[in-house]
Structures are given as structure tokens and as C-alpha cells.
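2024-03-11 09:14:02 DEBUG pipeline.ingest accepted 1 chain
2024-03-11 09:14:02 DEBUG pipeline.ingest length=567
2024-03-11 09:14:03 DEBUG pipeline.predict start
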Amino acid sequence: MSEQIIECVPNISEGRDSAKIQAIAEVVETVEGVMLLNVDPGKATNRTVITFAGNPEAVIEAAFRLVKKASELIDMSKHKGEHPRFGATDVCPLVPVSGISMEETVEYAHQLGERIGNELKIPIYFYENAAKSPNRKNLATVRSGEYEGLQDKLANPDWKPDFGSISYSSDVSKTGATAVSARDFLVAYNINLNSTSTRRANAIAFDIRERGRVKREGDSLTGKIVKDEHGKPVNEPGLLKAVKGIGWFIEEYGIAQISYNLTNISITSIHEAFEKTCERAELRGIRVTGSELIGLVPKNALLDAGKHFLKKQNRSLGIHEEEIMKIAVKSLGLDELAPFNVRERVIEYVLEDRMNQGKKRLVDMTLTDFANETASESPAPGGGSIAAYAGVLGVSLGGMVANLSSHKRGWDDKWEYYSDWAEKAQSYKTELLRLVDEDTNAFTKIIDAFGLPKSSDEEKAIRKNAIIEATKGATMVPYSVMETAYQSMEVMLEMAKTGLPASISDAGVGAMCARTAIRGAGLNVMINVKDLDAPEFVSEIIEKANQLEVKAERLEAEIMELVHSKL
């Protein structure tokens, strides 16, 4: 089972005082096992989105400390801002990231809300998946009346908080209330208009958002409101599901924006919201000039957007993922108001970079540094990493031929076919790059096993078993290189058959690199098991490695025959 990781995205009602924001955010990292990922203040909204992640127990401890610090430093009786709000920590959602279900995340949300309410006396309302009654699922409903209406809300028995103070005391007038939830990944997304009209921005938002607008008879602006049998206004649904939205004017930028919450991007994606907004804006003589993401975003959200725009251009999708995301950034205008660095704004990248901080990874080195490190006195990186990188180079060449073929004049009807092959090449390349460093990591585990104590018979037995298991693991890495490099040769074979004739030699070089990777990794398999006291494992892995080498030799010969026939 993978390690449980959740994300917490508290929104605090302070976006202008950098000292306060820093003091509140930095308490997160006083908890071991939590990483502060992003702090995104907004001056106009006077609100800051803080994002951190880690194991559940550590995250809810960090969340509690953040709420406590915010309640000490923020006075809601003096707060003004464009965004709806009712508390110093306005919302505090927990989001399952990996190894944990929504049901489990809800339990942690309830634990957090109960502790905040009991210890800090802040009124707590659970919403979304953590809501304890259906009428409290929607955040807009829970927060209705905002801070200014909180005194009346607390006086209403129907709005008794789930935990915390049930009366409007002087302390509550300062802290306000906090909404706690467990929810899916929510993307806060603003779209910029070449207009200053909040009314027109709202009109577009009402067209798009799931809730839509109040239905009227005749004229949509001045007609009589249509009501149901209970006398409540009837809503005319908007165009997109899982979307909340309002329009506003941002003084900081001098433009109107449409502010969306995309509550489920598998239902409505960023690019769908963007394009539909462009359509509805154009009908009103307004142009979308760009857009803005608030906080962090999942990698797939930008990848899906980038691929969407590449497909519209009949362009290959088989390029590096960061290049795909650059297309998304430019197409959505995410860098219109401020620079947009994907390494700082994509949650998976931020986690990856924080986890690897201070680590020396081979794949991050320049070619010269990699060569120099290999040539040094250190035994790692060695033949296993070099074999894996030979495989990287081989399939990269295969992918290059596929990408060039997708752009060949006169082959426009084939671009999607070659794009699919280029994507396959990218997936093989990604796995082989991972194995470049994994080979060195596996070697380190063997060294660690040999360093275990061996004074007693029990310690000797533990040490021997650790060495055997570490050696097995280290053997499976080059074997994985062999398997992946062999599988990647399908790309070079297809490119030798159908790819751009002018690049046929590149397909051949790619095949030779892949074969080298397989033979080199095979040598590492052999030397790793040379003295391994695990006869069955050794016999099986050697047989499999030998079979792969034979198949690779035949496949290389087939590819080279095709290449030479076309030279």
C-alpha cells in the first residue's frame, strides 16, 4: 500500500499584509512530515490561498496551527475584500492525493473541525463531502450572508455550527467562522476580459456556471422572475457542469474577470471552461485576453489542455510533458498577468522538487557532468545507468522520427498516427530515465545492507537476508532496463517501415542504441547475481535475460535490414 498523502488548501482572509501572511504560512512547516507547497496572495480579494501536503496526521496538526495563528493575527471586523468570506480562515478543505480514500479524508476533516471548534471556539461548518446534512454541502449556501450576516446566522437554530461557539461573542466577531471540508481537487480559475464591466462579466459567468441564472419571463434582464410551486425562484441551468462562477472587477489589473471554481475537472476541464467563456464573451462583443490559475494545479489539468490545443493544430502529442504544458500556458494566456512557471505551479512538480531538494540526480546533470561523474573514482553511476541512458537516447531518436513524420508535407492525414507512436516513445523514454537513477539507488541499498551490524547470530542472519533482498532489487533494475529497451524497439521498427525516408538512418541508430542498452544491462544482471545465494531467483532471471538478448538481436537485424534497403 502506498503512503497516504493529503493536501490542505486553507484560504485566509488576508492578502495584503505580507508579514501576517508569512507568519501564518510558516507555522505549517513547524510540523514534521508536512511540506508547504505554495502561498498565493491576492491584494484585490484580500485573501491568500496556502497549499501544503503530507501524511494525514501531520497535515491536520499543521492545519490546526495555521487556523490558530490566523485567528490571532486577523481581525474580521476590519476585513474588506472582493471575495465572499466569513472567517479569518475562511475555508479549510482537505484533498486526498494518494493512498487514501475520500471516506478516510472525511474522517480527518471531522477530526480537524472538532478540534478547532473545541479548542479555539471558532464556529465550524462542514461542507462538500464532510457535510453532515444535505443542505450544507454547497459552500455558497454555508457561507451565505458572509461575515456581515454571521451574527444572524448563529442566532438561527437551523444554522447551529457543527462545532465551536454557537453565539456571536467578541471572540467570534474577530475570528468569524471556518468552513471545513473534504473534497475533490478544486481548481480556482479566473478568466480575464477586455472589459471593466462587472455586470457583463457576471452575465457570462451565469451563462457558463452549472447553477446558471434566475429564470425570467420574456426579457432575461427585466422580465418577471419565474417561481416554483413553493414560491422559490427557478434557475435556468448554465452550460457546464461542476462549475461555480461570478464576475468581478479587479482594481489591481484594471479589468473585469470571471472567477470560476472548477469542482471536478474530469467533468469540466480548464480548457473547456476557457473556450466556452471565449464563445459567450464574443457574443457580447467582449474578448478574453488571458486567464489566471490560483494556487497549485494538477499536472493532468495542464497536460489535457496542452494536448487539446495541439490536436486542434494537428500537431504531434509525442513531446516532453513540460513542452505540452507550455502550449497550455500560451493558449490559455496564463502568463498574461504574471509569469507562470510550471515547476512552481504544478503540484506534482512542486512535491517532486521538494522531495529531491539537495539530492544529486544523474538525470538533472549536463551531459558533461554526467560523463565526468561516470569517469570519476566512484563506482556509481556505472554500467547499469549508462545502459539505461543508451536506451533513452535510442527511443528518443525513434520518437524524433515519428514527430518529423507527423509534420511531413503531404502526410497531413497521417499526423495522428505518428503522434501516437511519438507518445509511445515518450512513455518509454520516461521509464528509462527513471531507471538511470534507480540503478544507482539500488547499488546504494546494497552498500547499506553490507553496513548492517553482524555481531550476533541474529544480526548476521538479518544482514544476510538484507543483502540478498537488496541484491535481488538491484538485479531487477537492469532487467527492467532490458525489458523496456526491448519494448521500445517497436517504435524504431515502425519508423523504419513507415517513417520519414530522410530520417531512416536515425531509426537505425535508435535501434542500435536500444540493443546496446539491452546487452549492457544484461551484463549488469549477470554480475549482480554472480555470488547471490538465491539459486531459483538466479536461474530464472538469467534465463529471462538471455531470451531478451536473443530476441533483441533478431529485432535489431530486422530493423537494420529495412534501414539499409532504403539508404
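2024-03-11 09:14:41 DEBUG pipeline.report The chain has a mean pLDDT of 93.
2024-03-11 09:14:41 DEBUG pipeline.predict end
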